[in-house]
Amino acid sequence: MRTYREEATVDPADRPTWVDGIDNPYLHGPYTPVISEITAVDLQVAAGEIPADLYGAYMRNGPNPVLEPKGAYHWFDGDGMVHAVYFRDGRASYIRRWVRTRALRSEIEDGRVTLSGIMGPFDLPQGDGSQATNPDYCKDTSNTTLTWHNGRVLSNWYNAGRTYSLDPLTLDTVADETFGGAVDATLNAHAKCDPRTGELLNYDYGDFKSYLTYYVIGADGKLKHKTRVDLAGPRLPHDTTITPNYTILHDFPLYHDVDVLRNTGHRVVEFHRELPSRFGVIPRYGTQEQIKWFEFEPGYVLHMVNAWEEGDWITMDGCFQPDPTIRRDPSEGALGSMLAYLRYRGHLRRWRMNVRTGEKREQQLDDLNVEFCLPDTQLYGVKTRYSYHQRIPLDVQTLVFDGLVKYDHENGSHEVYEYPQGWYGNEAPFAKSTRGGAEDRGYVVTLATRGKDYASEAWIFDAQRIGKGPIARVTLPGRVPIGFHAAWIPGRLLWQEKAAAA
Ligand SMILES: [Fe+2]
């Protein structure tokens, strides 16, 4: 496999200059891709002790380009690579593997990248394009999320990409997932698997009518329900939330004009502050005629924490950007849009919607600049008190996390652990103790990389004492570049139910 850089070349001064002579910071330093896959067992513990009741796997997806990209490189364009740390009986093992996407397979065969990344330029299909999907003209890298469903880990992409099934124990790509041939579509990155029913709730969206299609996939991997949702134009929804009876869809006033896309070959995203943010509450097996739309302050949300029902009210918490205007710095040239988009400004907010009366409320819960927010994901759809976020520093060139924040949504308090100077953290999911107990009885796990020598470790926090720092630090056998979303897969799903089904 030919790669464009060597893993050892991590000197931040060694900067690729692929775009109009402008340095691309997402290709060096802590973002430098690695060049190999690793399997390692019995990892060394640098400090502390791996708790015996930590049982399952931390998995994180992220961009790791294999070949030199075509045109400008956006951080979302790097080929997906999954890093997984498995914890069992007080021991840990590690695997990293690329997701073998259609694009990567054909590029390796051709020895070159043929599709543009998300900064274009795109060669759009002629006619109304209603059958076109994003990956037909834009490289789909499957580098963004990992979701447990039906005994497999599903890998998906930021911009609605094809779904890939991974073997949860080897990370091998086992299928271009079409759910029995019934869903030959791209799906949003943050599909939600209902932990009570095993159903997968998600949607497709794109640049052509009807702009959004909603799907329910059964616990058996078969399509259970599908309905089109007509929007006024192309939108950029990214997440969703679920409750036992509803799925909440997003329509934010941050989008691009499809005519500009056709005429220029570029997706020019603008914030339309004169329009509201809209949430569409659809019954789980509902049609678009049954959607109740609620309008709120304009803005944008990448990630929600959770949602739940209390009587006729739905409560939903998430990380809200009140002014997602993309302020391009002309000195950053062709990279200006990407760099501006990734300079995050937002805070924790609560929305409440009454599905019977149409009443609504919204409320800012805090002012810390936080994102990449997770509750105990085994409690998706039911009321949760705690969530775990990454703190994002202001006024930095690229997206990094400088602290782990635990929120108590009942009393509005938070606890912070600041990552030590020079260390970069990653999204940190909650891992329930096998002994059960209170909602936050368990651990929070993240991967951390030190900038000066690229030493990488898995850090385990006691979820009830985040501020005290990691209770164990596990040495990883290779560097982990900064990436996107992580998931915790409980051991009972990974090993027990899988073994029982065999
Ligand atoms: Fe995301």
Number of DSSP E strands: 33
Taken as a percent bin, the fraction of beta residues is 35-45%
The CATH architecture assignment turns out to be: 7 Propeller
Oligomer: single chain
Q: Quickly name the level 1 CATH class.
A: Mainly Beta
What is the fold named in CATH at topology level? Methylamine Dehydrogenase, Chain H
Distinct compounds present: fe (ii) ion
- Indicate the structural class: mainly beta
The major pleated sheet works out as: 6 strands, antiparallel
Gap from first CA to last CA? 35 Å
Radius of gyration: 21 Å
The chain-level mean pLDDT equals 91
Report the total helices. 4
Unreliable parts = 1-15
- Helical residue percent? under 10%
Number of domains: 1
- Spatial shape: globular
Structure description:
By secondary structure, this protein is mainly β. It has a single domain, classed as Methylamine Dehydrogenase, Chain H. The chain has helices spanning 102-110, 258-264, 336-341, 491-501; strands at 38-40, 45-48, 56-63, 80-88, 91-98, 145-149, 152-156, 163-166, 173-177, 192-193, 200-205, 211-217, 223-230, 241-242, 246-251, 254-256, 269-271, 277-283, 292-296, 300-310, 313-321, 347-354, 360-364, 370-374, 386-391, 403-408, 414-418, 423-424, 430-432, 442-450, 456-462, 472-475, 486-490. Strands 2, 28, 29, 30, 31 and 32 form a six-stranded antiparallel sheet that branches. The chain has a five-stranded antiparallel sheet with strand order 1-5-4-3-33. It has a four-stranded antiparallel sheet with strand order 6-7-8-9, with no helix packed on it. The protein is globular. Mean pLDDT is 91; it is low at 1-15. The structure holds fe (ii) ion. Fe (ii) ion binds next to strand 20.
